[in-house]
Each structure stands twice: as structure tokens, then as C-alpha cells.
Amino acid sequence: MQLTIPDPALVLLIGPSGAGKSTFARRHFASTEIVSSDAARALLADDPADQGASAEAFALLALIVNGRLRRQLMTVLDATNLQAASRRRFRRLAERHRVRTAAIAFAFEPHIYLAHNTLRESRTVEDEVVADQAARMPAALAALQAEGYAALYVLRSPAEADSVAIERTRRSSESPARGQRR
Fold first, then answer.
1. Is 155 helix (H, G, I), strand (E, B) or coil?
2. Whole-prediction pTM value?
3. End-to-end CA, the chain
4. What is the pLDDT of residues 139-170, one digit of tens each?
5. Which residues contact 166 (CB under 8 A, 6 or more apart)?
């Protein structure tokens, strides 16, 4: 399956813990393009699971995302992104810098998130938290269509996510920024 993503773009990865968002991001994007809530919590608290560091982690994410978008760089936000208000905040930030926003949702059966969560090497999230996130996923999916993305993709299975190839497209009047991948 080929996904066509504008370049530059803010790419929101959307799905519960255990969806494979981080693995997907590492497979398809440069490490400098990925802005991760887990990585921000790890930087702040030496623990990517420390939810007590989340407010500061998301402030840090916003700062990094803003800086990258101001420079017209591909920016992939690796977080659950299940709350419409959070997605709206980041979309507005992209709009301010005239960068398009794409969304890739990981809409799997709830048991898949739980199973993947138990296999995670770096950390696992409590089953109750993953179940709550999975329960919120249908509402997030329902809202995505109306949110106005330049590209919106819903992956329905891990196999579909694994089969993805990403094509980056630039507006014809744009040229790549210095050091930016094509």
C-alpha cells in the first residue's frame, strides 16, 4: 500500500499504545524527523512511561514541532494523538507555518494493541490504559474525516501497516530545503 505524504508536512500518527506507531515511524522517517512523546518523557524523567512528566513533555514537543515546521521540515509526531483538541493544536501550529498536515491512523482490533503492548522491549503500558485508549479510538476515527488533512490514511491491520511504502510529494514550486531528503 502506498501512502502519498506532502513534503514538508506535519504527520500525526494516531493510535493507542501498542499500535506500532514508533516502529512505523522509524521504518519510514529519519530519526531527526520523529518527535516522540515517549522520548520527551525519557529526556525529562529518565523514564518514557512517567506520566507525571507528560505536561512538560508535550510542552517540549510543541517547542520542537514549532521549530521544525518554521524551518519547513518534515515532522512526524509520534504520540497517541487520540484527543481532538491536541490534534487541532498541532494542526494550527502547522497552518501558522504554512505546512500541510497528514494523519496516519492505526485502527486495529483492541486485542492487537494489548498483544503488541506486551511484546514491547522498551516499556509496556498498563492494560487498563491501553484498553481505555482503544475504546477512544473509534471517536478519534470518526472525527478525522472532518478535520481537514492534506492526506489521511487509516491502516486496518498490522499487516497493512507493514506493507506501506511512503511517497513524498512536494509542490511543484518548492525545492528541497538544504539537507532535506527527497
1. strand
2. 0.88
3. 20
4. 999 999 999 999 999 999 999 999 999 999 98
5. 2, 3, 4, 5, 28
Segments making up each domain of the chain, as ranges: 2-169
* Main-chain phi, psi angles of 106, to 5 degrees: -105, 90
Q: Which residue has the higher pLDDT, 111 or 98?
A: 98
Lowest mean per-residue pLDDT among 27-31, 45-49, 125-129, 162-166: 125-129
pLDDT of amino acid 120: 67
Are residues 20 and 132 in contact, defined by beta-carbon separation less than 8 angstroms?
Answer: no
Grid coordinates standing for 80? 497517541
Those residues whose C-beta lies under 8 Å from the C-beta of residue 101, and which sit 6 or more positions away, are 9, 10, 11, 12, 90, 91, 94, 95, 149, 150
CATH number listed for the domain at residues 2-169: 3.40.50.300
User: What gap in Å lies between CA 108 and CA 162, rounded to an integer?
Assistant: 13
d(CA 106, CA 50): 23
What number is the average pLDDT over the span 57-81?
Answer: 96
CB distance 56 to 35 below 8 Å: no
Q: Determine if residue 103 is left, alpha or beta; phi over 0 gives left, psi from -120 to 50 gives alpha, anything else beta.
A: beta
Contacts of 81 (CB under 8 A, 6+ apart): 12, 13, 14, 15, 87, 90, 103, 140
